[in-house]
Please model this.
Amino acid sequence: MTLPLLGAHMSVAGGLYLALERGASIRCSTIQIFTRNSNRWAAKELEDSEENAFRNIRAKTGIAPVFAHCSYLINLAATGELYEKSIQALITEVRRSERLGLEFVVLHPGAHTGNGEKAGLQRVAGALNRVFEETGDARCKIAIENTAGQGSCLGCNPEHLEHIVSHVNSEDRLGFCIDTCHLFAAGHDIRTEAQYAATFQRLSGHIPLQKILAFHLNDSKRPLGSRVDRHQHIGKGYIGKEAFRCLLTDTRFVDVPKVLETPKGKDLAEDKMNLRTLGKLL
Model:
């Protein structure tokens, strides 16, 4: 069997290129990064030296694909000033990722904050159309991440994802990132082979599975349908190992990158542990 693309979200502390070196140190074949501070609106301009160092180290490590996660502040379902601010922030994310040669950026669609799902989804699609138009010369895609469904967050069911993809003008630049913890927390069971198959069968009825650009591999600290997003180490949460075995051995997704977003310290010991666990499931 071809080994799946496995890795983890890597810190860019000290320099973007260091995320690649950290990933390589624990034998990641793919990684996810932030290209900027994820909890601030302001972003320092990307220097040519940073871009060059990143591209050089990436070539040396051979890690691919490398993709980014957008700022958590972006809310494309918002209204007023926050909506406009979110659109401009996403444009910045796409442009930075394009400069670094990243394949795509992962985005939480946002929360409707009481204005209703339909209105929120319409704003998300409208915002994406503006971003795609503004960055029309870019190859970098946007991968909408499914959510746990906390509060008024959109993206917790396949119907939300279907609405978004069916209302964007540049469908070729839109894809999806499926988070296992979010899937489970939103009420989609994947704990057995039969449940896993049924969940992805339902998902395939709303979005083309070939548009899944990445997976986030996270167990869940909370039970099925909790709608609470709390990541746990692989096999140590309510999901259990069987779901991850099913995903890792699913030939439909062998070429789709899969990264950990599980808790960890600076020495990456937890990432090593989780990657070992995943390796044994093959």
Observations:
- The domain at 6-280 is CATH 3.20.20.150 (TIM Barrel).
- The longest helix spans residues 80-100.
- Residues 162 and 206 are 5 Å apart (CA to CA).
